[in-house]
């Protein structure tokens, strides 16, 4: 068993003002994606300015934050928020959903694309390789908060989390997700997208890989207490939400490559 590193979730305290590591992880994710997007901006569109890229980053960030919060409300704890709608604004208590954030990004990207004369999937293929930076940073934030831990286990790297009332050695599932959704997914998408690919292919690969990685980790991650398992003693809400991502991603990739193989098909 490995000792859990005792890290104060509050990074900086200035009187009543507290800056949490989890919030800083959002800044790391957005800032890192912005930096790497700037490196690929000329290859994406030589006519785009840094200001245009800044606008895109702002829209995507809003999609992540607003969509992530509303997604958690709708997918994971709707009854509690119906009973007390003010909870929606209490973001310091946690409660963000990746799938809600993804829907928010899709909507904001669609609006931005229409306003700037770009194809929706052109933008999504540009954005997709940048997303794992925020995913990985967010999982580190979960680990520092000692939340979203895994099932009890006797693996040598199991940890006892201070927030666990049972004080059992558990899978550090946040680190599994950091390794898969952050590091592995970034490497796969970054190198795949370095060469020209059919439009939609990069977006499709993101959906497949994220969906598979998340589906796997859910087997060792404790589900949200208010939901538990949805069926068969193992199916979680996270897995249910990942299934359309996997199927949709496969469909996009098949369609992209078939269309590209047709004479005159768009890349």
Automatic annotation (TrEMBL):
Database matches in InterPro entries: Lgt (IPR001640)
Keywords from the named record: Cell membrane, Lipoprotein, Membrane, Transferase, Transmembrane, Transmembrane helix
Record-level GO BP terms: lipoprotein biosynthetic process
Membrane topology value: Multi-pass membrane protein
Signal sequence range: none
Annotated GO CC locations: plasma membrane
Binding-site positions, a 1,2-diacyl-sn-glycero-3-phospho-(1'-sn-glycerol): 139
Annotated localization: Cell membrane
Pathway noted in the entry: Protein modification; lipoprotein biosynthesis (diacylglyceryl transfer)
Entries under HAMAP family matching the protein: Lgt
Family indicated by similarity: Belongs to the Lgt family.
Role, per record: Catalyzes the transfer of the diacylglyceryl group from phosphatidylglycerol to the sulfhydryl group of the N-terminal cysteine of a prolipoprotein, the first step in the formation of mature lipoproteins.
Protein's recorded name: Phosphatidylglycerol--prolipoprotein diacylglyceryl transferase
Gene that specifies this protein: lgt
